[in-house]
Write a structure and sequence with these properties.
This protein is mainly α. Helices cover about 70% and strands about 0% of the residues. Helix 2 crosses helix 3.
């Protein structure tokens, strides 16, 4: 239930205590079991889900990077860029240049 909740609500605030409550586990036990099964913390999983959605939007839309950051649940453009670069090894703009469908538009 926690994974499904993240997938449906990645663009909103997703507090770890609410995820733990969905599973009927304590916060500590939930985080422990989550990491055991997915090899990342719930917070890391949420961030990766947001970044995956951002990658889709960067490739398939002409939305500004700031708009995408907000749409996927980051409330700070610089935090989005920092997480994106750390996880994907390039900035969102560079990612778009490299992977965007060639539609003639270059934002």
């Amino acid at each position: 239930p926690a994974i499904e909740h993240i997938k449906q609500n990645y663009n909103k605030e997703v507090p770890i205590p609410s995820l733990a409550q969905l599973t009927g586990l304590s916060i500590r036990k939930f985080e422990e079991k989550f990491k055991e099964n997915f090899h990342v913390t719930p917070k890391q999983y949420l961030t990766k889900t947001r970044l995956n959605m951002a990658c889709e939007m960067l490739m398939k839309s002409d939305m500004l990077v700031t708009e995408i950051a907000l749409k996927v649940g980051f409330y700070d453009h610089s935090a989005f860029t920092r997480h994106f670069t750390k996880n994907l090894g390039m900035t969102p703009k560079d990612y778009r240049k490299k992977f965007a469908r060639r539609s003639g538009s270059k934002k």
